[in-house]
Amino acid sequence: MELDMRFTLLASAIALVAVPVTAIQAQEQATRSPSDFVCELTGEECPAEPAAGPESPAAPTASATGGRAARVAGESRGFVLAKPVDPNAAKRPDPRPAPIRVVTPNRPKPAPAPGVGVAQPRVDLRLGFSTGSSMLVGRELMEVKSFATALKTPRLAGRRVRIEGHTDSVGSRESNLTLSRERAYAVRQTLIAEGIAADRIDAAGYGFDRPLAGQRASAGANRRVEAVLVN
User: Where is this region: Disordered (predicted)?
Assistant: First the structure.
C-alpha cells in the first residue's frame, strides 16, 4: 500500500513538471511555415486548408430501389402512354440564328518603367526582441530558421535578400541605429549558420528613419525586422 502511494505521488510530480515544458515547446514553434514565407515574398496565393464538405447522402440500396420500382409498376398497372411522333419535326429548320462568336485579340500590357511604382517584395519576420537586445532565442530563433528553409526552396533559391532592422523613436538616434543594425546582422548570421550563402544576404539598420506608413515614429509597431527581396 505504501509503495503504491509513492508511485502515485511520483507520477503526479512528473505530470506537474511536464506541463510547463510542453508550454515552453509550444512557444518556441515558428508562427509561419517556409511555404508561408515563399508565398508572401513571391506574391503567390498560399493554398488554403481543404474544408470538410457536407456528407453526401447514402446511395439507395437495391432493396429500396426494387421496392420503389414495384410500387410504381403497381400504380401504373402495366399501361405506358407514348406521345405521338411528328414525322415532319426533323425536317423543320431551327428558327433561331446561330450565335456569332467575336474574338478579341489579347493585347500585351505595357511593362512598367524601370524604378517607377515598383515596390520590392518584403516580409516582416515578426521578431520580438527583448528591450535593448539583439539576441535570437526561443520562438524568434525558430522563425528565422523557418525563413532560412524558405530561402532554400526552388522559388527562392539563388535570390538575394536584404535584412532591414527598424526601431521606434524612443531613445537617441545613434543608439537606435546601432540596435537596428545589430538585430539585422544577428538575423543574417543565423541565416548563414543555417546554410544560406553569405553573398545572398545583406543587412542594414535604419533606426527610426523609416517608420511604417500611417504610423508615428514613436509607435511600437515600428520595432521590426524585415526581409526584402532584392533580385
Answer: 45-70, 83-117
Characterize the bridge pairing of strands 161-166 and 122-124: unpaired
> Is the pTM of the predicted complex or chain greater than 0.85?
no
Nearest to 151 by CA among 31, 28, 40, 37: 37
Amino acid at 97: P
pLDDT tens readout for residues 11-24: 454 444 444 444 44
Domain at 30-43+120-229, CATH class: alpha beta
Q: What is the 3-state secondary structure (H, E, C) of 157-209?
A: CCCCEEEEEECCCCCCHHHHHHHHHHHHHHHHHHHHHCCCCHHHEEEEECCCC
Point out which residues pair with 202 in neighbouring strands. 162
How far apart are alpha carbons 118 and 136 in whole angstroms?
32
